[in-house]
Sequence to fold (223 residues):
Amino acid sequence: MNILFFGPNGSGKGTQGSILKDKFNIAHIESGAIFRENIKGGTDLGKKAKEYIDRGDLVPDEITIPMILDRLKKDDCQKGWLLDGFPRNKVQGEKLDTSLKEAGIKLSYVIEMILDRQIAKDRIMGRRLCANDNNHPNNIFIDAIKPDGDKCRVCGDKLSKRDDDQDESAIDKRHSIYYDADTGTLAATYYFRDRAQEDGVKYITLAGEKDLKSVTDELVSKL
Fold:
């Protein structure tokens, strides 16, 4: 079971990915972690990527995609994998599709979490971190996990905000890339959607505004 997972920041994509990882015993691969692993490990690709990162430049696809392919070939991916965070635009989607086929790696599913942009933004800005355990879910904009004032709904400890969760301009910038249906991440999503039947890939859409359990139940039923 090899999965590409698309969804805007704030959609709960990472949470669903972790659930699928545990349920189906597949590797949950986040693109950012691939860069960190290669740079920390001092691989040739990691060294090349670091040069760009140190200059504040974007790492070219010619480096990023080989890193991803190397990761998908590791032992923990033999039973399947879920790739989260790449591709980020249509060109990357096309290149990744070609590279996977050339490597003989077949996609099984493409999943798209659909969520209104304003709701996604509210969810990010509404996240609160528990001082006792950051995994305790608290969000002032989600009724099911709404905290009790400034206290964690799970343990009652103090809550705080992440600075980057409150940076509206940064959130808007990330979402502008994701919601761009012409050249951005949604364009990459639609590229795979339009090729799904021809390539024998199942394309799944999920309503991201539903509660966590409902989304999980719907997702598992479609896999």
